[in-house]
Write a structure and sequence with these properties.
two-stranded antiparallel ribbon, 86 residues
Length: 86
């Protein structure tokens, strides 16, 4: 009887430890990993935007390779695009 009680207590303690580890992972570790990932993604986007703006200011246009084609970006001035009505 004492052996069975000790085994039951050991199993319950193991279940509690496993559940505690799951809770710690879900509420402490995973949010930190996700936050780090989002921070680095935001940093990468900011670097890309800064690069595009620098190229635009230096060259007046930006070439971005997309697959086997090239996307050209240039500033848009709506006043320069208007033509007088005839």
């Amino acid at each position: 009887m004492a052996n069975r009680t000790n085994t039951l207590i050991a199993v319950l303690v193991a279940i509690i430890v496993v559940l505690a580890v799951i809770m710690i992972y879900a509420f402490l570790i995973k949010p930190k990993i996700s936050g780090y990932t989002v921070e680095k993604q935001t940093e990468g986007v900011q670097i890309a935007i800064n690069y595009i703006v620098a190229q635009l200011q230096q060259n007046g246009f930006v070439q971005i390779p997309v697959g086997n084609q090239t996307l050209y970006l240039a500033p848009f001035n709506p006043q320069a695009q208007q033509q007088p009505a005839q």
